[in-house]
Amino acid sequence: MVDGKYWNEKIETLPREEIRKLQLQKLKEQVKYCYTNSVFYRKKFDRIGLKPEDIQSFDDLRKIPFTVKADLKENYPYGMVAAPSDEIVEIHASSGTTGNQIVGAYTKNDMDIWQELMARSIYTTGGRPQDIIHIAYGYGLFTGGFGFHYGAQKIGARIVPMSGGMTQRQVKLMKDLDVTILACTPSFAVYLSETMLQEGIAPQRDLKLKRGIFGAEPWSQQMRQRIEKDLNLEAFDIYGLTELCGPGVSVECPEHNGLHVWEDHFIVEIIDSNTGEPLPDGQEGELVFTALSKTGLPVLRYRTFDISKITQEKCACGRTHARMLRVTGRSDDMLIIRGVNVFPSQIEFVVMQFPELATQYLIVLDRPGALDTFLVKVELTEQTQKNPQLDLKQLKQNIQQRIHITTGLTAEIEIAKPNELPRTDGKAKRVLDLRKGKM
Ligand SMILES: [Zn+2]
Fold first, then answer.
1. pLDDT tens for each residue of 318-349
2. Alpha helices, H only, 125-271
3. Ligand 1 mean position to 153 CA, how many Å?
4. For 18, which DSSP code?
5. Model confidence over 62-105: pLDDT tens digits?
6. CA separation for the pair 223, 351 (Å, rounded)
7. How far is the CA of 292 from the centre of ligand 1 (A)?
8. At a CB cut-off of 8 Å and minimum separation 6, what does 404 contact?
9. 373 vs 104, 115, 378, CA distance in Å?
């Protein structure tokens, strides 16, 4: 198993009809489990007269009402737990910005599956026992740090449980400990590469990094190229959310053509965000997941608000599990600026096109009078700053023009000095909306 191409060849290459058969069987059992053990789901089903035995096919799936984030918040902390209280062995929670946090409650079985899926995910990206994995996701309630820790432990790789913060110490340790895999958020990877530059560490010369496994926030293709170049590694995307287990729901394989969703434990659907209607493969919409194996805090048809596409086409890596396209935005991230829909990822797309600019940016919205103000703060790279030929006015104009082409809006541009914009250890803050309460 250790030297093969797959962590679990039988499951990862299971013919699609076998996967579907397994999913349907598990779905029926899971619906029954939820109805029997979760007060929340029993009420939900009873309200519309739905019985577990009504779910007999994949078409029946749509009879099950969606579960949403608000359900978890309203039933905080244990209202949606289905397992007996003494069977819950671990708690995690997501960093909610307002109100109650989203709590994940795990049974021993949930933990075993999570560890298995994280091992499978790291292995899929090429992680092996001889690797040294630097985990710079936060350790704590956030699922990132521990998720990677458990998975790397199962593989038998050497773990550097770094967590966030202390970037200078991080880059020194990456160098001294011969780290080969970096696991963190894409924005923290950028932060680390900037720190390396300041510390005189050249990844190509001084580090043994081979790959990076990045997730927990949407990032663009352009951001990925910058990270791969700056850190001299191959980047892999990983996806998950606390409501489902944490990271390890899906991961990119070396083909880099989407993320394989581990369908032996999850059913993935794409829906129209507005109507809730399921969409066919290849169409862009919102990801919805049903966790097939969870016993602690199970969720059926959970709406993620993450925008993606699904394909069941064969992948050259041999894995048969369906792929989701990398998530580039969330439908609840969408900004409405002067009546126009804008995604932060559109601004990121523009920023990344300018080699003069660092990857950090901040969108500031306000409404001092009747109209929204739309300011985009960008930042020069150290190199650009030193260039005597730099024409700031022209650069500003060019950025403004590209944003106008992309969004149809005229933004005010502010160019900051290198490292002037705030950095974070975890998920990057890209939007500062001061309009709240001024509607
Ligand atoms: Zn593949």
1. 999 999 998 867 777 778 898 888 888 889 88
2. 143-155, 167-176, 186-199, 203-206, 221-231
3. 23
4. H
5. 999 999 999 999 999 999 999 999 999 999 998 655 678 899 99
6. 9
7. 22
8. 410, 411
9. 39, 46, 16
Ligand 1 center to residue 327 CA distance, Å? Answer: 17
- d(CA 182, ligand 1 centre) in Å: 21
Among the four given CATH numbers 1.10.645.10, 3.60.21.10, 3.30.300.30, 2.60.40.1880, the one describing domain 334-433? 3.30.300.30
CA dihedral 10, 15, 21, 24 (to 10 degrees): 90
405 Cβ contact partners less than 8 Å away, ≥ 6 residues apart: none
Q: Which two tokens stand for residue 398?
A: 């060019």
Q: What are 412's two structure tokens?
A: 């005010």
pLDDT at 437 over 70: no
Report domain extents, the chain. 1-331, 334-433
* pLDDT bracket for residue 438 (50, 70, 90): low
What crossing angle do the helices spanning 344-352 and 392-407 adopt, rounded to 10°?
A: 140
Q: How far is CA 402 from the centre of its chain?
A: 27
